[in-house]
Amino acid sequence: MITFDGVSKRFPDGTLAVDNFSITIPSRTTTVFVGSSGSGKTTLLRMINRMVDPTGGAIRIDDEDVSTLEPVALRRRVGYVMQNSGLLPHRTVVDNVATVPLLTGVPKREAREAALQLMDTVGLDRALAERYPSQLSGGQQQRVGVARGLANDPNILLMDEPFGAVDPLVRSELQQELLRIQKELAKTIVFVTHDIDEAFLLGDQVVILSTGGRIAQVGTPEEILAHPADEFVDNFIGAERGRRALSIKNVHGKDVVVDGTGRLAGILRVPSGESSRTV
């Protein structure tokens, strides 16, 4: 469990990035921080592993104040996945994945074997193990980044807009892979995005942030969709434009789902054994 208790962050130039932020992140669930630029979401994420230190309040992991922990040791026990993967270009895929275990003293052969198993976990062909990052596609690089973040078997995985730099099709595939991995491994994931659809897809708990790291609303995707807290949240999730108001339209004998603007949102599939009248 991760607890933010009255956390603030003011940078030396006077910018208030986070203002009196308090929330509890339950263990073995995915919490998504979502907001536009300047909402403090990445700053909040980086305070968990002390890449950034707060100027006020406290952050605790399982009741242990992170400010009392040595930063490097803390970062080695918390997985971190960033945008553009952040891979070491001069190391092969398998050695990139094995980076943290090697730093913590795991024998090279053992670390590399565990890295190969993690490649299986994230859906990477072992034939790619000896390739370098420049020889991989963007989606493959991000999978390597996720594998590296999991390499030390951390309880906590921090993900800073990890799928923001890939095309929509690959992004969708990576989102589904993350859902599968979380179902299998049950980590405590803190995920940062500016995309509300991604937040609703991935998050057990979604935290919508306004400027200065202030909480506009927190809840499950269903709670936020059903009861937006205010006009800001309404605008942010697209409810005021009718984008979330879905309806069914028959096109050439097939039921499709359209949003409030008339744009296609999906295909309606009737579960086996049910009639379309029950949907």
Report on this structure.
This protein has helices at 41-48, 71-77, 93-97, 99-103, 108-121, 138-150, 168-185, 196-202, 221-226, 231-237, and strands at residues 2-10, 16-25, 30-34, 56-61, 64-65, 78-82, 156-160, 188-193, 205-210, 214-219, 247-251, 254-258, 264-267. It is an alpha/beta fold and 279 residues long. The protein has two domains: 2-240, P-loop containing nucleotide triphosphate hydrolases (Rossmann fold), CATH 3.40.50.300; 247-278, no CATH class. The strands form three sheets. The chain has a six-stranded mixed β-sheet, with helices on both faces. Strands 2-1-4-5 form a four-stranded antiparallel β-sheet, with helices on one face. The radius of gyration is 21 Å and the shape is globular. The two termini are 38 Å apart. The mean pLDDT is 89.
Counted up, domains total: 2
Q: CATH H-level name of the largest domain... which superfamily? A: P-loop containing nucleotide triphosphate hydrolases
Compressed to H and E, one letter per element, the order equals: EEEHEEHEHHHHEHEHEEHHEEE
Distance between the termini: 38 Å
Approximate strand percentage: 25-35%
Number of E strands: 13
The helical percent reads 25-40%
Rough outline: globular
Query: Architecture of the largest domain, according to CATH?
Result: 3-Layer(aba) Sandwich
Major β-sheet profile: 6 strands, mixed
Structural class by sheet pairing and helices:
alpha/beta
Strand order in the sheet with the most strands: 6-7-8-3-9-10
Instruction: List the total number of helices.
Output: 10
InterPro entries: AAA+_ATPase, ABC_osmolyte_uptake_ATP-bind, ABC_transporter-like_ATP-bd, ABC_transporter-like_CS, P-loop_NTPase
EC number: 7.6.2.9
Protein name: ABC-type quaternary amine transporter
Keywords: ATP-binding, Nucleotide-binding, Transport
